[in-house]
């Protein structure tokens, strides 16, 4: 007996800098070229959101890293 059901899986990675979307990708490995020029001094947050959708369900995972620009 063959299993004729197909798994419909979609993956997406979104990258944010200070809550502004700066890039997204649906192919692995996820990469982004982003220059840290002309940014204000102080604390900033990079955030990556990985979204995996299968059928009618979805799952997401978020990771944040804080950086401090001093010059």
Concise synopsis of the structure shown:
With 71 residues, this protein is mainly beta.
Structure description:
By secondary structure, this protein is mainly beta. The chain has no helices and 4 strands. It has strands at residues 9-17, 20-25, 42-54, 57-69. A 4-stranded antiparallel sheet has the order 2-1-3-4, with no helix packed on it.
Write the layout of secondary structure elements.
Layout: E1 9-17, E2 20-25, E3 42-54, E4 57-69
Tell me about the largest β-sheet: 4 strands, antiparallel
Rg for CA atoms: 17 Å
Overall mean confidence score, pLDDT: 83
User: How many strands?
Assistant: 4
What is the succession of H and E elements? EEEE
Which class of secondary structure composition applies to the elements? mainly beta
C-alpha geometry: elongated
Strand-residue proportion? over 45%
Give the spatial strand order of the biggest sheet: 2-1-3-4
**Tally of helical runs:** 0
Low-confidence stretches: 1-5
State the helicity in percent bands: under 10%
Cα separation of the termini? 66 Å
What labels describe this entry?
mainly beta; 71 residues; elongated; 4 strands
